Amino acid sequence: MDTKLFGGILLIIGTSIGASMLVLPIAMGGGGFIYSTLLLLACWSIMTFSAFLILEVTLWLPPRTNLLSMTRATLGRGGEVVAWITYLLLLYALMAAYISGGSGIFDFLARVLHVKFPAALDAILFVALFGYIVYRGIKPVDYVNRYLMLAKFGSFFLLILFAAPYVDHHKLLGGQPSTLVSAITVTLTSFGFAPLIPSLRSYFDSDIKKLRICILIGSLTPLICYAIWNLVILGVLPRQGDQGLVHLMQSGGSASELVQSLSYFLQSSSITSIAHVFTVICVLTSFLSVSLGLSDFLADGLKVEKKGKPGILIFMLTFMPSLLIVLFYPSIFIKALSYAGIFCTILIILMPALMIWKGRYRKNLAVGHYQVMGGKTAIVFLIVIALSILALGIIKVVFGY
């Protein structure tokens, strides 16, 4: 077995399957299982195609080139500015969520040891420990991620195993497809692994075959897991009622509230405990992958090596903004989550399509390099989809629906 390829696949899976996995059934609950599965398949197709476009662009340029250099080389300074703003807004927001959720690990340990840590110390310890792993580079992240992924899959399968007997196939029928419009951006971010592609290109020494396999298997696995998870949750929880999926969606329910609903209907402390463990591991794997991509992005943008004093600077810039948000504004990121899908659409769908168009058909950068199939028709179609999703996302944010 190619352990390096296996590790790369796990990095993509770990980036995709995060705490948002538990939120997906809430966002999709009103649409029913069949329609939500179709939405999952559509979003997977869009995000995986965009990931291959990012792979094509990064292969035009020298190794260790990140999204910033890619946009500068293809879209000029204007594209570079948009990439800076969008990438930082998206990933700093995600990092704040992961730090906030992950710091609960130390709060749990403190309760086990019968000691009391200040909430601020929990977050600082989380960043200090797991941020140091990211500071060491992609290899340590890869190795730690492999063990976490094993634990993640173990807890996931246990959840499925314990909850599956409670599935009622009648609850899987029906649904209102119109309610899924608001779930599009949430679903897209659940496949938001594409910023990791430039780092993987360097890790695999530009081996196109391995990179393609890594992207395909790494993205297909979350799709299957999401579909199974939706099958179980939508088959267990009712659509209506105080603890139902529609109520959770309308009240802005979180992953923890979904766990509480499972506990309420299944009356199982085992399922509750496993779900909490699964959530923590999801946060950790996402934190490692996202912060690795952010640190590579900053190093590329500032043109410095992630070693010595410049490496410490990159470390501070990677973690401090999000840590400060958690320390001083612990609830502000909840509002920012509604914008994450918009940032994701700009960065991972619209901009790669524009970079391909400019690089292939205006600057001829693709000559002699790997090209994604589809030609101009596929690129135009992707741009139209991206603009439509952006319009829907902006309407949702501005008008609240």
List the main descriptive attributes of the protein structure presented here.
401 residues; mainly alpha; 16 helices; 78% helix; globular
Reconstruct the topology from this structure:
Blueprint lengths: L2 H14 L3 H9 L3 H29 L6 H36 L1 H9 L6 H18 L1 H26 L20 H6 L7 H7 L4 H29 L8 H6 L4 H12 L2 H34 L5 H21 L3 H30 L13 H25 L2
Description:
The structure is a single chain. The protein is an all-alpha fold and 401 residues long. It is built from 16 helices and no strands. Helix 1 packs across helix 7, helix 2 crosses helix 12 and helix 6 packs antiparallel against helix 14. The model has no long low-confidence stretch (mean pLDDT 83).
Brief digest:
The protein is mostly helical. It has helices at residues 3-16, 20-28, 32-60, 67-102, 104-112, 119-136, 138-163, 184-189, 197-203, 208-236, 245-250, 255-266, 269-302, 308-328, 332-361, 375-399.
Largest sheet features: none
Termini separation:
48 Å
Please tally the helical runs, counting DSSP H or I stretches of 4 or more residues.
16
The helix/strand class is mainly alpha
Global morphology:
globular
